Amino acid sequence: MEPEHDVDNTLLERLRREIDNNLTNDQFSVEELAKNMGMSRSQLHRKLILATGQSVSQFIREYRLQLGMTLLKAGTLTAAEVADRIGFGSPTYFSKCFNEYYGYPPGEVKNKLGKIPSESDRATTVNRSGTRLPTRKPLLLKIILAGVVLLVIGMIYFNDTGRNGVAADRNDKSIAILPFKNLSEDRRNEYFSEGVIEAIRTSLSQIRELRVISRTSVEQYRESAKSAREIAQELGVSALLEGSIQRSENEIRIDVRLVDGITQEQVWAKSYDHELKDVFAIQAEIAQQVADELHTKLSPEEKSKLSKTDTDNPKAYDLYLKGVYEYRTYTNKGTHHAIGLFTQAIALDSNYARAYAFLANSYIGLATIFGAELSALEGLRKGKPLIDKALALDPDLDEAQMLMGFYKLYHDWDFEGAEAAYKEAITSDHPDALALYIDYLNFTLRHQEAMAFAEHLNVKDPYYPNSRIILSYVYNNRLDEALEFSESRLKMFNNYSTLDSHGFLLLRLKRYNEAIVYFNKAIAFEGIRYPRMLGWMGAAYAQSGERQKAVEIINELKQRLARNEKGSIAFFIAVIYSALNEKRPALLWLKTAYDSHDMEMPWLLTEPQFYTLHEEPEFQQLAKQVGFK
Predict the structure, then answer these.
(1) Which of 79, 300, 392, 506 could in theory staple to 515 by disulfide, Cβ–Cβ 3.0 to 4.6 A?
(2) How far apart are CA 206 and CA 218, in angstroms?
(3) What is the reported pLDDT for 170?
(4) Which of 359, 313, 321, 293 is nearest to 202 (CA)?
(5) 546 CB contacts (<8 Å, ≥6 apart)?
(6) Contact indicator for 607, 575 with CB cutoff of 8 Å
(7) Proportion of the chain in helix, strand, coil states, percent, rounded to 5
(8) What's the CA angle centered on 548, arms 544 and 549, to 5 degrees?
């Protein structure tokens, strides 16, 4: 057996080697580092704890400060210059950390040495205990060069709050647009404030060089008292855009402020007092100014997109914003309101591509297992002409491309066509498109690819409410990491999606009683007995030996199907029968689900309760009919 200290040294040597191999790659990220070492970020963290007794952030922090000491002893740089060289965004913060670590501030280093450093002093490294470690100058330079790259990567860990493991360095081109304050007397104008922010975010998201955190990840900071630095560190961005909006009839006032996420200094600010019809020009100007201040290089196409508007009709735009606001309540009532508002917007502007896309999405929403009002075919068929119209008006519209992928997958069971459309949609890093593409990859058993995209989505949108990380961990058999991530999510979110995913994970972990608790919590959250939750709850009862309770849920679902209720009911009846190890009725109900074109059928190969059916000829034939190869 290899000695433990050799294992530790091998880990650290591999870590240094991977960094050395990418010294000139300025795009080298922590995700790539962990991937090259064959582990996740959390695995790397745990291994370093075992090897050094320190967390990654502690290890990197001390290394940085030791490098800072070396540079200060060389006597050629000021403390502020050293702070800049080793990745500290603020000289004040560097001085504070240095003082805590060494017991005196950076300015006292020369006094502690007692003289101006000689050449021999400059080639000496001092560790925390004060031991001098002679080095040769070429080696020192190599160490410093390697250290700088390591520290840039390490900053991601150092600024971590323990939730995401990502943060930006001072040169990172990334931004989060915080919820603007609605200063209007009419609180119902909240939708307008949200819409303006979304328009600016959409424009900036089209710049390839700029990373923009999505709406769902910043929502938690609406009433937050945290500092700009704290928020920037948690979201892993270098800049924040703050602001307020006040609207009175057709008059609007918009105040915006761009803040450095490291120094908390104001980079740019401006106030706009205009009529409502000027809102398009204001949004475009703000996006352009932010791009300029972050020193992003824009292609001619990107410059054109920044000034592009979806409609020139202020009234249509106002209706559209109201529709989006209602749609994002994710309730049946809100979806119906949204359909009416989008329809009115299109009546005022028949060329409003984004309104067509959202109208299509609303109809499809009524057919999902959560809307459960329309059948899959009904919802998708209502949406298809609207998707076609949106793409005819704007072939590059990511939301429309995403919906086309969804239609091809769930209506046509055209897997190749769906993937082509999804790939078009994800070029802008649209979070919903990424999530749907991850589902597709898991459906087709490409679990490692799905994991890579799930991790990318988690970096792009750390607080995406229906994170695909948990399912991807499960399908890659990384159950401990799935549980760690899922439990951290439960501390942040109390929504249906999080409860749904956590219950699914517990079912896979064979912690059946706990799974049932979370399925009941999900049902209680909205007061709706979703077939999905009932199906998995029935599977948990079946697997735990409570056959009678599983049968009771089957009977409930059969009664609801007889009443012509929607929501992939036949599919989930099959789930419970399979969990009861009753293969014949499970296969018969899957045939019923196929005949009724249940929305869940693309999950056929990936539903864990069906794993025991995979070798059955009838199951294999059904998979081919759905479109699996």
Answers:
(1) 506
(2) 19
(3) 46
(4) 321
(5) none
(6) yes
(7) 65, 5, 30
(8) 70
Structure tokens at 14: 């591999």
Helix (H), strand (E) at residue 234: helix 228-235
| One-letter amino acid for residue 401 of the chain | Q
- Alpha carbon distance 614, 604 (integer Å): 10
Is residue 276 within 8 Å of residue 196, measured between CB atoms?
A: no
The residue ranges of DSSP E strands in 328-445, in sequence order, are none
Band (43; pLDDT cuts 50, 70, 90): low
pLDDT at 575 over 70: yes
Is residue 27 predicted with pLDDT exceeding 60? no
Identity of the amino acid at 454? A
Count of C-beta atoms within a 10 Å radius of residue 562: 9
3-state class (DSSP) for residue 174? strand
Q: Which amino acid is at 192?
A: F
Q: List the one residue out of 71, 69, 73, 65 whose CA is nearest residue 115.
A: 73
Return all residues near 297 (Cβ < 8 A) that are at least 6 apart: 209
Q: Furthest-apart CA pair in the chain: how many Å? A: 91
Q: Which two tokens stand for residue 134?
A: 């002679």
Q: Which domains does the chain have, with CATH numbers?
A: 4-158 (1.10.10.60), 174-308 (3.40.50.10610), 310-413 (1.25.40.10)
For 464-473, b/e burial (b = at least 16 CB within 10 A) is: bbbbbbbbbb
In angstroms, the CA 468 to CA 455 distance is 8
Residue 592 CA to residue 20 CA, distance in Å, equals 58
Which one-letter amino acid corresponds to residue 437? Y
Dist. CA 379–CA 132, nearest whole Å = 73
Among candidate residues 476, 430, 416, 429, the one with its CA nearest the CA of residue 451: 476
Rg of the Cα atoms in the chain: 28
Distances (CA, A) of 324 to 48, 168, 199, 356, 376: 46, 31, 12, 12, 22
Indicate the length of the chain as a whole number: 629
In this structure, what are the phi and psi dihedrals at residue 433, rounded to the nearest 5 degrees?
-65, -40
Please compute the mean of the pLDDT values over residues 9-18 and round it to a whole number: 69
* Residue 240, strand partner residues: 176, 259
The CA distances from residue 534 to 62, 106, 369, 513, 550, in Å, are 52, 63, 12, 14, 9
Angle at 414 (CA atoms; ends 375, 373), nearest 5 degrees: 10
Q: Collapse the DSSP code of 125 into the 3-class scheme (helix H, G, I; strand E, B; otherwise coil) and give the result.
A: strand
Q: Does residue 116 sit in helix, strand or coil?
A: coil
